[in-house]
Amino acid sequence: MLVVDDDPALSEMLGIVLRNEGFEPSFVGDGDGALAAFRSTKPDLVLLDLMLPGTDGIDVCRAIRAESGTPIVMLTARADTADVVIGLESGADDYVVKPFKPKELVARIRARLRRNDEVAGEVLQIGDVVIDVAGHAVSRDGRAIALTPLEFDLLLALARKPRQVFTRDHLLEQVWGYRHVADTRLVNVHVQRLRAKVERDPEHPDIVVTVRGVGYKAGPL
Amino acid sequence: MRSRLAGAAKAIRHRWRGSLQTRVVATTLVLSATVSLLIGVTILHQVRSGLLSSAVHSGQSLVSTGVQRAQDQFLALPNTDPNSVERTAYGIVTELSSNQGDTDVVMLPAAPGLPSYGPAVAVASIPPALQRTVQRQGREAWTYTRLQTTGLQTTAALVIGAPVQAGSVRYQLYYVLPLTREASTLRLVERTMWFAGAALVLLLVGIAAVVTREVVRPVRQAAATAERLAAGRLKERMRVRGEDDLATLAASFNRMADTVQQQISQLRELSRLQRRFVADVSHELRTPITTIRMAADMLHDSSADLPPELTRSSELLQAQLDRFEALLSDLLEISRHDAGAAVLDAEPIDLVHLVGQAISLAAPLADRQGSMILADLPASPVVVDVDARRIDRVLRNLIDNALEHGEGQPIEVRLRGSDDAVAITVRDHGVGLRPGEASLVFGRFWRADPARARTRGGTGLGLSIALEDVRLHGGWLQAWGEPDRGSTFRVTLPCHAGEMLTTSPLPLEPEDAGARA
Q: Is residue B199 within 8 angstroms of chain A, CB to CB?
């Protein structure tokens, strides 16, 4: 696990908490060294502070996302719509607003590291998009579409119950492991990211469809 | 008809009050018309008396000449037998009336029964009163009369009479002078006066209109500019032209606007810096608090291994950290509202679901307070464009608030929607609000009773933030309360973001408000 944070006290405390939970954290203090550290340690998950000296947290996030689907959880002091949305759009899977409780952070990390109980050989289809559940692969017309684990989980959740309309809260619980948190931005941004990859025309989606006033569902209406 | 008249009167009154120009022009009109009328009447009077007195003068000289001629002729008579006297009288009248144009000469006998000489109309026009004066007092006298001309028409005339006495012969000689020329002169003067007066009045009114327009235009321009300034367009200025008084007005006005703009921008900058400072402080505090929080949690988790007083200490630390965090995030939220940086992230949301969720989240607190939450929600979804995060926060705040002040009595939450608005009320039956407190509750850090212990560590900013959140939606958040009768908080939201609210689907005062009063 890679922790990118410029505050030494917080980094040390994070280290204590994470080790206590059985993780093996390594630390980077600024944005410039973050990508090199990511390449050398190959972490299962990145904890990334958005406000960093040197390269900005958003840029680090984009750089990591450009070469890997490794889950990224942002640490941010600002819960403002704009900041969070920019972070999510630049590739973060989830975010935690400072000050957070250690249990909350650990829950977020575990949710991102959790792998669904997969049935071997299960293959799902929405429209012309084929999902190979065991192989974590998505393809259209035989061409593979690269999804991050989170995007894959989101698509899978929708695809498993193709006739059901999922509310945003339901998706938050199912995919992110949240309960009682009405932050729908998380869902909105990731649905947009997912659409950008799987839809032929993201402006007129037919794989992940919006049901006005309720939420989303898989496949054509 | 009457109402139309009243309407016209109202319009005139409005114009009178509303326009300086109208007032000045109307006043000028009335005053100049009055003055020209007075002057005209005076001049006419003077002209008239002048004309008449000259007519009287010339008449008098005619009469005295005539009397002299008559007396001479009567005295020259060799005898005074009636026949020769009558002949002579006739001759005198004929002689005197020749070469006199339209002046008639009449000779009347002193005694009745004797013939009179002269045209009959002229004879008829001599008033008896004048005859008596001339006869009894034996002197010259004059008066005005009306002389019949053609048909029934009469004309003003001057009658001058004098007694003629020659020995025993007594007559009265009258000259009847029609005043036709004088009358036409007077009419001409009168017409000229009317014309001149009207022209003068028009001229004055025109001048008044032009002058006031010259003065009023820059004043109106100043008013319009001031209006725009007041509406927030601080860069508005008046145009300065020339160097006259009005240019001075414009220049002073602009200087005033400069000063005001400068002051306002200074204040804005100051409050921007202050808000920025609050936001920065809140952010800067977050990182160390996160570390403290994690450290405290570590301590708390291992509290089983600690001595009891340290366990209690870590619990206190934990609880106060929660409160500190809540305060910090509320401060940040309100500073964001103050800075106008709060953004409405609206999307169609089912409010029934949202309210239900907020109620179920409040269940643990309700259990602790021993209150029941009674929900009165529509069976079908009420989908409205709202920012779910904000409305959720508002609802939780109101419900928590009601539970905190509800004294263990049930809390009622109602939701109703109409075509263009949705209302949610949260009612408690606790201590209620004293008169005047309904607006104070939204004040920052306001407490109903400073001496009252808080059961929960509320930040004192919850309702202020709720009010800002609702306002951001273009909605209303209102409070009602009476002592010992509980209180009601009502949220009214427009169904579509940006629409104006006019009414709320739910009453603010509960239906039982009047019953127990």
A: no
